[in-house]
Write a structure and sequence with these properties.
single chain; Aminopeptidase i, Domain 2; 468 residues; Aminopeptidase; alpha+beta; binds manganese (II) ion; 8-stranded mixed sheet
């Protein structure tokens, strides 16, 4: 057999992941970098679930989505719920009971939440207690600048939104760590999981005293005085608050060549941004296109604003009414059972320094496009949705037709660990659903890494899906 013939057979039969940069021309490369600029702006304005909902609804309103239920134009609808989840839809040519194309992503990211009684003083310094949210490696949150974002509800019922630590003129906060000289017994000799203690993730918030040396609690009081002057707060107001401690600072280009983006919150918000952008850009979809943004994924999708809530059903009821149909339960069920969905979430990228936690043939790699993960879960696929072959087949063909660079992926070697997404909760409705999102390096850390080519292909893939 001739060498060229062997090459042809090789090309035809063997599945080969493709590097995004090898698959696109100069014009599309430009689009990759332009999209990333928009994405970084989004990341900087949407660091919490509430901020993300505000950003999304602002963008949706500017793009003719309407939240009015009596809207005479049911084509572009939106609905927010408890300011922590939001859904958008664009009506398709087919009747809605034939199902929708749905992308679900999550707005929350791992962080440190302030406890309800956070403020105390110790060795003449003021601190705030935290309870970490989601799966973090605790040591990554030490000795770095942190910002506080969130909402406080005061005793008169009025609420206040706070962001401190992002503006160059703002102070930042931090969690201190023991010096290496004295860390032998308390850290070095221990297992990592024992060496870093959740209850020690105390955020340093002050150092100036109030009153004179006879004043009780003078460091704590100094902070409360400041909070009272600046925001009208008293200590009890912190009980009715959701204050989130997140890494301070903006998303940044990473590398001499600027091909990567480093930021807090890629996991979740890379899919939020790309599905939102796809939704804004689609024209005349065949089926009704729907994007759903939920909260609480990082803590199991529980709660009224998580993926286990009934918000999607409620939104579909609104949609039926807007189309002049009765929102009967079995109608809603029918739509859901006929629907196709993407559980849009970051996948763990093959780590260059820890390649042995992955199984290379099935691990997603940075730069090889959006990742299609048939299953997630852990230890014998436990807790996985495990998508149907027919559905994976349909989606991969769509991606191939639309020149979306994609790859397959799984979350680590068998029995190495694992994790879940919202897929299994949406699957209970009977819809076809599969996990699909960009690979992310240093996932759940304060500075996660994504590849600009992957973010672009995620957008391109979601758009193809919503238009199908
Ligand atoms: Mn996550």
């Amino acid at each position: 057999m001739k060498k060229r013939e062997i090459e042809r057979i090789h090309e035809k039969l063997i599945s080969q992941p493709k590097l995004v940069w090898d698959q696109i021309d100069k014009r599309e490369k430009e689009r990759v970098f332009n999209l990333d600029k928009e994405y970084q702006d989004f990341l900087n304005t949407a660091k919490t679930e509430r901020e993300a909902v505000t950003a999304i609804s602002g963008i949706a309103l500017a793009n003719r989505f309407s939240s009015s239920h009596s809207s005479s134009d049911p084509i572009r609808m939106m609905k927010t719920f408890q300011e922590k989840s939001i859904a958008l839809s664009v009506s398709g040519k087919e009747p809605i009971d034939e199902g929708v194309n749905l992308i679900v992503s999550h707005l929350d990211s791992p962080r440190l939440d302030l406890k309800q009684n956070p403020l105390y003083e110790e060795v003449d310094l003021a601190f705030m207690k935290t309870h970490y949210y989601g799966g973090i490696k605790k040591f990554q949150w030490l000795t770095r600048p942190l910002a506080i974002h969130g909402r406080v509800v005061r005793s008169d019922g009025s609420s206040l939104d706070i962001i401190v630590g992002e503006d160059d003129a703002d102070p930042v906060f931090t969690v201190a760590d023991v010096l290496p000289h004295l860390a032998k017994k308390v850290q070095y000799d221990k297992k990592v999981s024992d060496a870093f203690v959740g209850e020690k993730l105390n955020v340093m918030v002050g150092s100036l005293p109030f009153g004179d040396k006879d004043t009780k609690d003078r460091f704590k009081l100094a902070i409360l005085t400041l909070l009272n002057e600046k925001f009208g707060l008293v200590e009890e107001d912190l009980i009715s608050a959701e204050l989130e401690v997140v890494p301070a600072g903006k998303a940044r280009d990473v590398g001499w060549d600027r091909g990567l983006t480093g930021a807090y919150g890629h996991d979740g918000r890379s899919c939020v941004f790309t599905s939102l952008k796809a939704m804004i850009d689609i024209k005349d979809p065949q089926k009704t296109a729907l994007v759903l943004f939920v909260d609480k994924e990082e803590i199991g999708s529980d709660g009224a604003t998580g993926a286990k809530s009934r918000f999607l059903e409620s939104f579909l009821a609104d949609l039926l009414i807007a189309h002049g149909k009765e929102p009967l339960y079995h109608e809603i069920q029918k739509i859901l059972m006929n629907s196709r969905a993407i559980s849009a979430d970051g996948n763990g990228a093959l780590d260059p320094d820890f390649q042995d936690v992955h199984e290379k043939r099935n691990a997603a790699r940075l730069g090889y496009g959006v990742c299609l993960a048939k299953f997630t879960g852990s230890g014998g696929k436990y807790g996985a949705n495990d998508a149907n072959a027919e559905y994976v087949g349909w989606l991969r063909n769509l991606f191939n037709q639309k020149k979306v660079v994609w790859q397959t992926g799984e979350l680590g070697k068998v029995d190495e660990g694992g994790g879940g997404t919202v897929a299994k909760f949406l699957a209970t409705y009977g819809m076809q659903i599969v996990d699909c999102g960009p690979p992310v390096l240093s996932m759940h850390s304060p500075f996660e890494i994504a590849h600009k080519g992957d973010i672009y292909m995620t957008y391109k893939g979601y758009r193809a899906f919503l238009e199908s």
